What does this fold into?
Amino acid sequence: MTTIDVLLFEGCEALDALGPHEVLAYGGLDVRVVTLRERRLVRTAQGLEVQAHAPRDGADWLIVPGGAWDARELTPRAQAASGAVEAFARAHHQRGGKLAAVCTGAMWLANAGLIGGRPATTHHRYWDELAALGADVRRGERVVDDGDLVTSGGVTSGLFLGLHLLERLCTAEVRRQVEAEIELPKIPSAA
It folds into this structure.
């Protein structure tokens, strides 16, 4: 069975992490929230404290959530200086693991050198910054799938990322069942 770890770090966006986790769990996949090293409580940007596990050595997928990328205290950008999240994502990818990002989680992956000129998206406020980091930014797309890299736009796009992965890893029918169960309406395409 496919295993999926959703990375939690201090100041991450709660819905970025928990949205795809819930969707994937509804679909019956082996998904869990993890931290960089040991099991511990992690405080999200919204003050929610979540008990996260130690990461699995062989998880197939790693989902990186975003957060308040332009803020300065206990947020992703402040933590980016340590390089720990980037190093963790690079190690996961180097051993053959696939990557997904929600919202500004794509910024972590771009900082890690894992996006380069590949197609990707992020929160609309950061499209230019992501492009400056070398990504082929797909503006306005909710989910961009480039094989071993799947990115999604703003916070609620994590739900759609989860649904996309369900269809990819399971079937279109499983995706439809989960959409119906969580009562997520289809969003019409932009004109």
DSSP finds seven helices and ten strands in the chain.
